[in-house]
Amino acid sequence: MTSTESRSPSGETLSSGILSAMREVLGSPSQMIPLHEPEFRGNEGAFVAECIETGWVSSVGSYVTRFEKDLAALHDLPHAVATSSGTAALHTCLAVAGVEPGDEVLIPALTFVATANAVSYASATPHFVDSEPRSLGVDAAKLRTYLLEAARVEGDRLVNRATGARIRALIATHIFGHPCDLDGLKELAAEFHLVFIEDAAESIGSAYKDQPTGRHGELAALSFNGNKVVTTGGGGAVLTSSPAHAERAKHLTTTARVPHRWGYTHDEVGFNYRLPNLNAALGCGQLEQLSGMIDRKRDLSARYAASFAEVETARFLLEPEGTRSNYWLNALVLAPEFAGQRDQLLTDLNDANYMSRPLWTLMHSLPMYSSCPRMDLSEAESLESRVINIPSSPRLADTPR
Ligand SMILES: *Cc1c(COP(=O)(O)O)cnc(C)c1O
After folding, report:
1. pTM, whole model, 2 decimals?
2. Closest CA relative to residue 213, chosen from 281, 118, 294, 332
3. The domain containing residue 348 runs over which residues?
């Protein structure tokens, strides 16, 4: 044994054990298996063709209306507002939530950059919080301890003691589709007068205690980017149970145009964030396939879980107890003593045609966010050094056993 290459108690090296578990599930591919491929097995083509034949390709059209209705029904909510991206949906959520320039918004350091960028678009400052290893989502107990010290409640405002800024909202991400601690975070948000927003970009079809993710926050954002479980090519949606929020989201995303038969007047600075009909048509076809795709993704994840049960150097990340994950991206968490071999493992996996990648660089390590306020982020930093994603497309469930 060399100092750079740890072995597990039974003597396997990191890569050898993990490669053999991968082979058990995916065989030995001769071409690269992508991380997550879109899949169009249903009416997607027919619906898109209909847009072209009828000329209804842009931001007004029956598929936008239908897509919004289907999304609302899927989440058992009265309202969904389709947007041109998930980032646009998050930005809209923040605007609707009343986040003002100079406010701070609590977000996990462990998330995709879109969460932080949306806060910046609202002229607010991201304030980074730590995660817990079970769901990879925000650690409610640790955040509570931190806020009791670092902030004070003034009436119905939470104020950062160090910066003097108002902390207005909390955005929680359901990482890789695994629902985060929604009960704990909702309770915390109520205690500290925070607007609670779900970044459900990765978790369409996931559930927390039998309730879909995306219906627990005052507002939630979905993404339909090409690598997500449901894709519209590019797109997103705002979810809310509030008719006033939904109306405002629709207004802001349609250039704040005052409704009129022929007049063009706008009553504030709005955004061109509406989803085109062409993309919504693709989304309607995709939603018809959602439960089948999730069934196959969960089948794949169960096969990974069984195969990795014997591996001592890493654990397969399972859905937290009491939740049902869409398993958007399957993930392995390396044992701490193997963190130093992560990059060698990634090289070996990609060389063997299993596309794999590390966690996103944490937000506070990115140059534009390095001076933002933050709490102790030791768990997120530990996870960053040890979590990798492995191929997750639904079609992989069709791999012969
Ligand atoms: C994909 C994603 C978004 C939104 O991304 P878009 O590409 O703008 O649709 C936001 N947050 C998270 C956590 C995501 O994974």
Report:
1. 0.96
2. 294
3. 14-40+289-398
